[in-house]
């Protein structure tokens, strides 16, 4: 019991000492991410360890993959800060799992099974968190692709009605049904830049890079190649693109439906087993 309790207390003491040493150094940084990440009470310790041992520089090859996902989710400006905070959360979870494993093992009087299970979860949690981040990135891309055909159709209608591309984009943002959707959020930022007299081609290029989706790149390229000409050339190009995007949307909806069906299989199996037990148990007891 003492064999497992001592290292747990040592880790807790180290965390406590680091917390006292750090003080309020990272208070402003943590305040920016309040509500976005769990275990923020451990963030000062984790951020200190990241800075002290230069973890981001030493593990750059692995961390750059996480940073690419953060660029896709939050854009270039805040991607580095999000990556740093995300790494801090990974370290926090590892420390919490490790301390909890040692304490529970000590309380179970050195039960090796609890130690093995705890260490397994400690090792698997970072992988699970990175997996969840990939799922968030995919979900965001799917939402953008589902909404993009509607935006393209609105543009076609507005340009046909005599508005310029810039005016049509502004109207798409102001009349959006869901202003908090990923695509409209990115479009709103692009429109704000456009209204601030930033060059139109630069605004669309930044919009394309921030979304990080091939279909968005095709959309912005189509507009940039044809908006100066105007007239039928732009309308025809957008209509061709719209047809392709609707097909893409159908495929995404079909895939999501198949995923939902596959998720129902396991609960149905459990229900079937439960029904078999309920029906079969009386017959077995009678026999």
UniProtKB/TrEMBL annotation:
Location in the cell: Cell membrane
Top-rank taxon: Bacteria
Positions of the Type II secretion system protein GspF domain: 153-282
Membrane topology: Multi-pass membrane protein
Full protein name: Type II secretion system protein
Organism: Ornithinibacillus caprae
Regions crossing the membrane: 6-23, 86-106, 112-130, 264-284
PANTHER family for this protein: INTEGRAL MEMBRANE PROTEIN-RELATED (PTHR35007), PILUS ASSEMBLE PROTEIN (PTHR35007:SF2)
Signal peptide: none
Main localization of the protein described in the UniProt heading: membrane
Protein keywords: Cell membrane, Membrane, Transmembrane, Transmembrane helix
One of the record's GO cellular component terms: plasma membrane
